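To illustrate this point, we now present one chain and its tokenised fold:
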Amino acid sequence: MADPTAISAALTGLFPLVKEVFLMTQVLFEVDKKLRSFWARTELQRAIFDAWEDGWLDARDRPDDKIKAYAFEKPLLARGFLKEFVNLLKTLSDPDKLKKRYGLRPDRIPKYATRNDDVQRDLRYYSEYLSTVDSRFNIKALPAFNKSTTDHLNLLKTVRYVIVGKDYELEDVVVRLGEFNRDLQLYTASEANNEAAQRIYEVVLRGLHSKPDDPARLAEAALFEQKATIDPDAKSFYGDLAKFIGFSLSLRDVTVINGRGLSPNMPSQKIFTRRDFSFDAPYRLSANSTLARLLDYPTKYQTRLVLVEWIPVPKTVNVKTKLEGLKSEWYVLHADKPDGLLLPSAQGLVYDNTDPNFIGIVFQLPSHIRTELPPKVAGRIDPRVVRSPKTIAAQRMPTSLRQLILHTPALDLGVRFKLAQKLLNSVHLMHTAGWIHKKIRADNILFFPSQGRDGEPDPSRLDFDTPLLAGFHSARLEIETSSVLEVAAKPLEHIRPLQGLGKVLNQPRVIALDAYQHPEHRYNVNLPYRNQYDLYGVGAVLLELGLWETLENVEKGDIGKRGYDPRVVPTRDDIRKDGETVERAGYKLDRIMGSTYAKVVQECLTLKPLPGDLLALERSLVARLEHCQA
């Protein structure tokens, strides 16, 4: 059996060769516009490999330490790992195999050509040497191996592939690279590089602004791979990747359009009036959101159940200007999104002159919730069809995480661990794409009834696998700054919270909209909103999820005892105390949810500016939550 030290050294030495082979293949397809589809698919496979490789790199961008630990812990899998590297390099370095299988010929790049140059002979020599890197490979062979790989890499940098066969043979090259990536992921599926799925999203967006056409081609490549594969997991992966790139591109497009002082074009049929809906009292969720029946949609006499969130329009803002701004939000949210984002799909806006102070965003609900409603008009009424809004609401209304915590026993630990992981992963994907939610709170996380065997909603069971992250209406902290200015002319001073005021005010509204916000943002709401503020909101939700208490009730109701007059901004001392209360409550998680979960929450709730790459931190936190088990 091969020495683990030798295996790890061999793998470390072969990484640069594999990367060079990917680059040579990509360059082959890039020079010919007719082969651009192959180029995009090769670039996609290269991005997948780069993301997988990143999981092995240390602070010096070297894979030595992690691979060495892996080789000692799992020597048999490490041998398979090494075999995949060797087989790929032997195939794509051997001139005979290249011509026979893929219709390619290795040739010297003209500026490196010399007299009596025999590239094929040299490549054949290195390919044959790789055959000695097998189960008998040991540490004594490392000096010769290191020299061979160095010379082999230097040679590959002066070589290019030339097409000598048919175009259909080139398909096999891309397929071979895809098989190589899948095999590597199988060999290392249980390692720390489980974060590779998140890394891929980051890698494919690296050229989003510098090379705007590249991500679009990668999305097309992912769709091609989705259709070509028969593996359901691969089909789901490529489909989600294509949707994620599309979502990111919509964000980029809106940024460019808004930068020109314009707003996206929105079809007129996507701007609804209140007459297009039936807003029944049983459908009401909160002061800012409600379910509603969208009438005559998608065709006449049909009805769909939708979610409407109302956006208040301050008196100081022109209604038409606000409407144009919300078109950008609709443009982003109506794009296809991977399920992991947990964001609803926007169907349109609600605006008419009957109430210009509010504009609604219409969101699509899960298929078994939104469909099969009684039609507006039916030729023959079936007596079995129940038309009461109250009855329909009882079958289809969502329950927020806040309601669950307040009114039901604690969920199983396993369910809570999965919910925490899904929420943190969703926020990581949003930030990767460039989107900031700004209003992550327990009352904005919705769970709908599960789908029963008959396809109808089953109100006795909630679907915890697909929560919906809503809450796009303006938070109080953002809209009441203006109300404070409006009353400034009146004889009202900046007073401290009144004793017992929490009992008088709508407590959930005060707490839910304040304590989830990062204290730094509460100190100054005019600061640019940062990703770290979203992460703080996630930490607050994970704290509630772990303790199974809402924020106003943690630490014996310390936060809930401080109520605020809505016209008055809390003092810095009150904000500091709220932050300290949340931080103090986090120390209790260790004995309830375990040390891993507790440390993840504490890192989310840190009040200090987070240095370095925040996306990398979020990715790491998601990976750590995956190890939490009941």
Summary: Residues 516 and 540 are 6 Å apart (CA to CA). The two ends are 38 Å apart (CA to CA). The chain is about 55% helix and 10% strand.
